[in-house]
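Section 5: illustrative case.
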């Protein structure tokens, strides 16, 4: 293996410098536009001069300037997660506007109201049905009780999206 002792005369292209610094060609051009790297009139970069300039650019405390493929990948991964989250939130807001989803608070209010109403009706069954059931056969009593309970329970299955919007307005 041969060691080059004098790097001051070696010139390379932006692609060559990018390979030396483990950066992209675009980043090398960007650093040149920022004034960090210097190129000659033929768009060639002096390896020694630009190596020293890049090292000075990356002095301790400037770690956030390091633009490796790994950090770029991590940045784009985080950006993709952020954009996905924003899209999911927007979808939820659209569904809320269409009354297709409801907040847990709204569901809790509506369910508490429904269950309270059903509880009251079930507790009042004995006083409501007693006069109706007097002098009835066992079969009639069973049918009347079953029909009454089914009527009360049918309130549970009657979902109407408006139930949730009405609760918001109160």
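Designed sequence:
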């Amino acid at each position: 293996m041969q060691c080059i002792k004098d790097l001051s005369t070696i010139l390379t292209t932006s692609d060559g410098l990018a390979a030396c610094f483990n950066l992209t060609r675009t980043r090398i051009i960007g650093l040149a536009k920022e004034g960090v790297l210097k190129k000659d009139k033929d768009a060639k970069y002096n390896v020694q001069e630009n190596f020293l300039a890049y090292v000075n650019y990356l002095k301790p405390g400037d770690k956030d300037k390091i633009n490796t493929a790994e950090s770029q990948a991590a940045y784009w991964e985080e950006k993709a997660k952020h954009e996905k989250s924003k899209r999911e939130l927007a979808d939820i807001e659209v569904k809320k506007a269409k009354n297709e989803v409801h907040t847990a608070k709204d569901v809790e209010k509506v369910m508490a109201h429904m269950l309270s109403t059903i509880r009251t009706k079930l507790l009042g069954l004995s006083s409501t049905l007693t006069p109706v059931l007097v002098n009835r056969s066992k079969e009639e009593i069973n049918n009347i009780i079953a029909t009454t309970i089914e009527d009360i329970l049918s309130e549970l299955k009657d979902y109407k999206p408006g139930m949730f919007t009405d609760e918001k307005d109160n």
